[in-house]
Amino acid sequence: MTLSPGSRVGLAGAAVVGVAFGMARYAYGLTLPAIRQDLDLSELVLGLIASATFAGYLAGLLLARPLAARRGPRAPTTTGGACGAVGAVIVTVAQSPWLLAVGAVLAGSAGGWVWAPYSDIVTRTVSPRERPRALALITTGTSGGLVALGGLAVLAVLGSWRLVWGGLAVAAVAAAMVNLRLVPRTGPVPHPDGRGGPFSLARALTVPAAYSVVYFAVVVIYFTYAADVLARDLPTAAVPALYAAIGVTGGVGVATGSVAQRLGSLRIAALCLVTVAAALALLGLAGGSPAATAASACIFGVGYMTGSAVLAVWTAELVPDRAGAAFTGCLIVGAVGSVAAPALAGALIPGLGLGTLLVLTAAVSLLSGVALMLHGLSKPATTGQRRRGEGRR
């Protein structure tokens, strides 16, 4: 069977993003307890390495655009795949904190290199009708990565934490090969023509950028503290199960493109914030219940994956000629929220308690979702409605 260009690019992107975001991004936190025990590292050193991995992600985001401008948008995705594979191999064999840090930072940078360039690849190689579906498929690849990471974590329980990173290295190589095989090489990404410049881009992205700050902040709070909630009353195997459940239910994100064309990306984004709010509230109010925790993970998977997929679709709709730059801008703004949220949470938890913090975070997500929905209702037409109108002309 011959695949359409949208399916080829979508499958390749899903594989690469799945490894970079679903696996490499969370492997360090998942294996942290075992690393602490095996290498006898202090909390300070482990925390510094964790921060450094995020710095690697930001570096990848910032460097991907210049590389795409010189060598084409496929080049950063290849670079990200190589960083993921090499970094995972280094962590697998690391016996010192310095080697561990180098490998973890390299692997962590993979997500920054690969995600945004696919917006340019899709807009340059896929027909307008197929673009929303391809972008949603690429982003939802994270779900498959989370499921795979959960499976590797089970193997690690039976063997060593190094099996997780070894499996990650193999997956990164396989994804990079698929990417080179299915994604066509394109020319350099042209520089903007100067009409409005960055100020014009910023004006067009005001609403999705605001959404990005809240979305990434509440998501990172969930991922940061969900394991702590589970560790209170549930066995250690519950954490890999949590990741797997998020990945499985997050698979619905693949339909984000078609749903956004019907309802509008803004409204889908608002609903995602409300969904994540429900997951956070469940975790904060009833985290000691296995059933409530499982329900929270399943609800969160839907909101998390659809929320990231809609951002890719939304920015490509608003600025189709600079989709990669638009998506990168929103990711960088969202990264600020990701940095600030855990620091603020760490300052508030001693006085409020973890459960109260999660409920307050849920309230922020809920109110932001309602505000975004009201903003959408005030518009004469959603983006999806405008696109359908254009298609009839």
Automatic annotation (TrEMBL):
Residues passing through the membrane, by range: 45-63, 75-94, 100-122, 134-157, 163-183, 204-225, 237-256, 268-288, 294-314, 326-349, 355-377
Keyword field: Cell membrane, Membrane, Transmembrane, Transmembrane helix
Membrane topology, record value: Multi-pass membrane protein
Domain spans labelled Major facilitator superfamily (MFS) profile: 10-380
Source species of the chain: Streptomyces marokkonensis
Compartments where found: Cell membrane
Protein name: MFS transporter
InterPro entries referenced in this protein's UniProt entry, alphabetically: MFS (IPR011701), MFS_dom (IPR020846), MFS_Efflux_Transporters (IPR050189), MFS_trans_sf (IPR036259)
